[in-house]
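Q: Study each token:
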Amino acid sequence: MKILTSDELRKADAYTIAHEPVKSIGLMERAAKACVDWIASSSSLLPKEKGTKPTAKIFCGLGNNGGDGLAIARLLAAKKFKVEVYIIRYSQKCSEDFLINEKRLKKAKGVKVHNILSAVQLSTFLSSRQAGNFQLSTICIDALFGSGLNKSIEGLAAEAVNYINKSGCRIISIDIPSGLFSDKTSHGKDAVIVRANHTLTFQSPKLAFMFPENGSYVGDFSVLNIGLDEEFISSLPSKNYFVTEEHARFIRKPRNKFSHKGTFGHALIVAGSYGKMGACVLSSKACLSAGAGLVTVHIPKCGYDILQTANPEVMVETDSSETIVSDNIKLDKYNVISIGPGIGTEKETQNALKVLIQNSSDPMVIDADALNILAENKTWISFLPKNSILTPHLGEFKRLVGDADSDFEKWQRQKEFSLKHGVYVVLKGVHTCITCPDGEVYFNSTGNQGMATAGSGDVLTGILTGLLAQRYDSKQAAILGVYLHGLAGDFATNNLSEESLMASNIIEFLGQAFRKISV
């Protein structure tokens, strides 16, 4: 799914209106209906007491986002919601579609409309018993400003945002939380932005939704299809994508019934040091579970019994060192190599990594301490085989490229790093971001906070290595591997809990993740 800019979405709107044909007010009605259907089907938003009407208080601006809010009010009232609308009159100007929906709303039954002209009036209405106090069971809908906003919210509109945030209600933002910029950072101490529990956005997620700095504003989000022209969207030059199940299913390669273990490659995983052999156990087991035909691990001598006992399906090659990886490793048997989990940063290990990346010609997976070594020896990055996959968490990424003032700046640095060095960077996080040497960017849609646990990254390294062993190309392996890793984590959390999830549980549910994208 493409992630479109606000300008691209406006063009898609205009093209659809011109070529379907449909009037802009008709497109607004589609958007409102999609929102109302989502709200009415969300059991968590509806009162649990029988006979109690669900209540919605809707804050509307004067543009098309406000027009959406007015249409939502009318449609919710038709579904027997108790609806109150607060039109925030911060200007004399209103959009044409807002005015049309304002006239339609006047004919609707059961909707109270309050025109708010000042902060004092706003405060009076919201504290008045006649207006009805906000209750925890009330849905507060933010329809003040949409994705076209390009300046900070001030004055009466800012007061409305503050009241929404203090309401104590479940807050739903329409299209985008009011005050949040779609395509640039909104980060700042004086930012006035709605803090939504859930955002209902149209046709495409917004780029801003992908970044941690905006998590407290966006909450969870759902993308609602409003029928914009798909061919036109496909023609747009956007290089940013949100990975869905459909995309993962398209990448997955079915197995031929006459295949054998040699068909699916021989992977080498260089991992472990004294006290950190668990990283090798997890990555090698994940590599096999992701489908690699053969897996060999290169480990210090101290880990031999551990690996042979914990993971008998893998082959073990021991280093000359008892406690660390230090040898120059022969590579002729393997079609993919990964290095990093638990190896430490001893001088001998650093030298072993340097020789390994200089001698490797095929794409590698570089993780954990291997990344930290590269951060200390940045000239070595040029030795990496083209199309290698680097899998840093935020701390490792900062050591590689430096700190940034915002998530948007960090994202730019990540893209530049991939372009400069010809590598894929998998920056792990809520919507793990994959930047590619061709300039494309993929944000992941699976995973949960339960996966923030020791060893989760080692499992991802194993999955990526296993996919590369099966001759997925680097882009395919990165996209599919990250998606499956997150999906397996979702299955694990659903069966266990966020608190109790361990990295080994992700491996246990990896088969279920593969089945999900195979049907």
User: Anything to note?
Assistant: The chain has 19 helices and 17 strands.
